[in-house]
Write the structure tokens for this entry.
Amino acid sequence: MANLKLLATAAHSIRRLAIRASAALRATPPNPPFLRGGNIVAILALLTCNTVRCLADAGNELHVYPAQIKLNGQADQQSLVVQLINSQGITRDVTSSVTVTVADPGIVAVERQTVRPQADGETKLIVELGQTRQDVPVVVKQATTARAVSFRLDVMPIFMKHACNNGSCHGAARGKDGFHLSLFGYDPAGDYYRLTRQLVGRRIDLAVPEKSLLLQKALGAVNHTGGKRFGQDSEDYRTMLSWLQAGAPDDTGDTPEPLGIELVPPKTVFAGKDQTQATVVMAKYSDGTVRDVTVNAGRAIHFARAHGAGRAGRRHDGSGLRRRPGSRRCGRPRPAARQRRPGCPAAAGPRGG
């Protein structure tokens, strides 16, 4: 019913516009300057474009993800994604086009569509696009409490993000360049031991954390087969440095375990080529908490892109996340396959059986 009323209003506006245009044309002298050449074509095209857009926007609905926000701790944050869905189910990413207003700016701050805590309390975000609006409730707890960096929840995801513990790098059966990590982090206790206890004083330097070989190699300051993984201005560097400055502690007590991840928006329908959709990765933990882990999703696709007809192309990196096509993995480049001579039989298998 609401859509019918909007269509009726749009049709009435178009009729009034046509009457006014007709009256203006009758009052003008023959062949006025603004109707010469291609001007009349441009005016008609503009009117048609506005009419089509008005009719198309009549059935649009604004969807904000996540639908509600809960922030816990000083360093917690939540990214927003906004979708416009028309009556046919076609989606359009309008995250960068919406206006976000905080009902109580003393509770949270919004910068580049990312919400960060300011003080404990409840408020709401007002997300607007033209005449459409959506409210998002926000709850903040322990806004002034700094959470200690967790080895399993904060440090190990950085190894996964930069593909350091995959099969072609330090996650190989024999490791890489003398350093071994468990494949995709399946053994956190073993990884902690190899980082902090094996070859004591080599990989981490608690006296001068900035000079730790773990950081220097990731920064590309010293020779590293995998090359530079992040810079000093990155969140990953700050997390690793904070962990080292705190004495590189292991997790104590019952550390929440991730139960799964959710990608929002849950559904994207493209109307044509060269369209994109921003996404947010949410992780659910065993203690009931939900965290925005988009920045730790590593080689995950933070946007979907339409490649013509069909589904958006994605690759899997073996870690439970989605990997950007063409992204670089840690380790040496794979050598090109050898070409066998004509007439020679193909090898039965890899060397060494």
